[in-house]
Amino acid sequence: MRSKSFIITALSALLSITAAGQQERAPLSISDMKGENYLVPFAGGMNACQFGEVDINMDGIKDLFVFDRYGHRIMPFINEGTAGQIGYTYAPEYAADFPDI
């Protein structure tokens, strides 16, 4: 169960987003009670996962494919890291490109 302060922080962040076209949007960040930002706050929980490396966006760099057996969820993460540094970004728009498992 999430704490009340988390819910209030999330709602405040959502309310601060303006309508499209009115001004440039800043990236949304969600933090815990210590003020530390979550890296992928909207990816959801992971329960019974299988992991694999695959080139999801066909750029020649191995990305991360996650299949959660609980709920049959596909979670693709694009590797946007540099040489020697891995940096995965949750990319749910690629989930529809995979067959039903």
Mean of all residue-level pLDDT scores: 78
SS-based class: alpha+beta
Secondary-structure element sequence?
A: HEEEE
Number of DSSP strand runs: 4
Global morphology: globular
Query: What share of the residues does DSSP label as strand, in percent?
Result: 15-25%
Q: Into which percent range does the helicity of residues fall?
A: 10-25%
Segments where pLDDT lies below 50 for 5+ residues? Answer: 13-22
State the separation between the terminal residues, measured CA to CA.
30 Å
Number of discrete helical segments: 1
User: Biggest sheet, in brief?
Assistant: 4 strands, antiparallel
Q: Work out the radius of gyration.
A: 16 Å
* Strand arrangement in the largest pleated sheet: 1-2-3-4
